[in-house]
Amino acid sequence: MGSTKPSKFGNLLLSTIGPLDCALTGTAILNSPTFNKGSAFTPSERRDFNLTGLLPANEQSLEHQVERAYQQYLSRSDDLAKNTFLTSLKDQNEVLYFKLLLTHLKEMFSVVYTPTEGDAIQNYSRLFRRPEGCFLDINHPENVEQDLALWGGPDDVDYICVTDGEEILGIGDQGVGGILISGAKLTLASLCAGVHPNRTLPVVIDCGTDNQDLHNDELYLGLHQNRVRGKQYDEFIQTFVEAARKLFPRAYIHFEDFGLRNARRLLELYRPKIACFNDDVQGTGCVTLAAIMAALHASGQKLSNSRMIIFGAGSAGVGIADQVRDAIAAEMNISHEKASQQIWLIDKPGLLTSKIDVSDAQKMYVKDASEWSDNASLLSVVKQVNPNILIGTSTVPGAFTEEIVKAMHENCPRPIIFPLSNPTRLHEAKPADLLRWTNGQALVATGSPFDPVTGPWGKDGKDITIEIAECNNSVVFPGIGLGCILSRAKLLTDRMLVAAVQGVASLSPTLKDPTATLLPDVEEVRTVSVQVAKSVIQAAVEEGVATEKDIPSDEHDLEEWIREQMWNPEYRPLRLVKMEDATRAAKGELGKAMPGL
């Protein structure tokens, strides 16, 4: 029924110790996903909250409820139907929803997130039942502040996830359906790092859409107009950021699935001013760098000597390049420009050279065209560069061919090869092929889950099984967010990101077993998030950007301080309070828009 253990940090705002104040009774409490326990209300709670005639007599545990919900989940015909079932469950009982997910995390992760969430987003206007989150209309900037103000006061929101829906999960422009990716990311933040779900705010900025299928769909719920760009767009984003900072000055802002032309530009514009993060740019880079560091350690290679090719120079590819560049520069004490010479980017026109028109984000990685033939292919670059790291973010299936991989392996005994494109059908190579082509020597991580691979790669040709790491951003971004929230960081600095990477890499199973996965398993993600948050908080304190008072300096105390403030899907005892004396939290209004303002 919730934790009752003593804690030196039980008086904190986000403490998870002790009873919850609740002003709702009768059907109102049953209709509140925050307070509803269904059949798990105790006899005394049923009396106190006027529930005796509203529930079956048998009191059941949360574990009983999870088993019942799981059976209902299994009865759904396909993954999209299962996704819809989970959404409905979340609307009814928040604790049960998250407990079910945590209990069956590996099985349900792909249903609650990619790839199934992509299907739900594509069908958003057809599956729509009730709005969840804040919808901002680019044609009405004058409404932004009042629309955001519906979600509470300065201390009610910790984490805002915002998208404009232009580049969703590899499926492109989904317009207003992007609200679901904001919600999904916040779900992962709560699931993986214990960010309090009723203190999060999903936002979609409806700028229109360039997706003609949505224009032609009379049921589409967003603006039936082409995307607004340029000055009007930039001014609207500024209006949003300023209003969010005014209303929720302590909230952390997570930009999600913005288009390539805006993602990095907006991040670089606002990073020096506020605590913000872009998962596509920074999250992908951080988790990939953590896997690279683990692979280098496992193979006895050094980052300082590395030569990396990235196939696919979009926001994810350049984000990975930036994180690796920063790490090389820090390790070798050299400039970013010097470090970037160890990284080659290849996109649709071929190797990015001085003859090719590139974006500002790509400029640092451009190579001298006089040293390369026009349209240099991946194979030719591999042969000339002799890389030890090959990353795929291209969504070109099968791009890492046997010839390319073997050419890489000729000059690198333990090649590090990460085909990261999502979903599975768009991967640059299958792990089984990569291991077969390199006689089991490749160090592999992928963007989606793959089964372990068995082959005759042990001593004397003995079969061994190699685990395949999933380079999933959920290993790192929830912990980064938690660290920023708990430290109330003014900014998210490069040093804090490097600390997050080191926190993940320090928990790599490969450090203990060379056949194990390069990254911690998704089932260990809460332990990982504590380590990431701790590293981020320590870096924030050292950088002077942490504003929270009395952050423990002792390692053990800091970990306890973090865990005490992580929300857990457990039923806590409820304490009845009078409605006239109740806070927004006691009224079950946190995380929900307030009507009538």
Automatic annotation (TrEMBL):
- Domain Malic enzyme N-terminal, first and last residues per copy: 90-271
Which cofactors does this gene product need? Mn(2+); Mg(2+)
Could you state one GO cellular component term attached to this entry?
mitochondrion
Q: Which SUPFAM superfamilies match?
A: Aminoacid dehydrogenase-like, N-terminal domain, NAD(P)-binding Rossmann-fold domains
Record-annotated active site: Y113 (proton donor), K185 (proton acceptor)
| UniProt domain Malic enzyme NAD-binding: residue ranges | 281-541
The reactions it catalyses are: oxaloacetate + H(+) = pyruvate + CO2; (S)-malate + NAD(+) = pyruvate + CO2 + NADH
A GO BP entry is: amino acid metabolic process
GO molecular function terms here?
malate dehydrogenase (decarboxylating) (NAD+) activity; metal ion binding; NAD binding
Question: Which residues make up the binding site for a divalent metal cation?
Answer: E256, D257, D280
Instruction: Identify the residues that bind (S)-malate.
Output: N422, N472
Is Oxidoreductase included in the keywords of this UniProt record?
yes
Q: Which UniProt keywords are present, listed alphabetically? A: Metal-binding, NAD, Oxidoreductase
- Asked whether the keyword NAD is assigned, the reply is yes
Reading the lineage from the top rank, the first entry is: Eukaryota
Q: Where are the transmembrane segments?
A: none
Q: How is the cofactor bound?
A: Divalent metal cations. Prefers magnesium or manganese.
Family under the similarity heading: Belongs to the malic enzymes family.
The protein's name: Malic enzyme
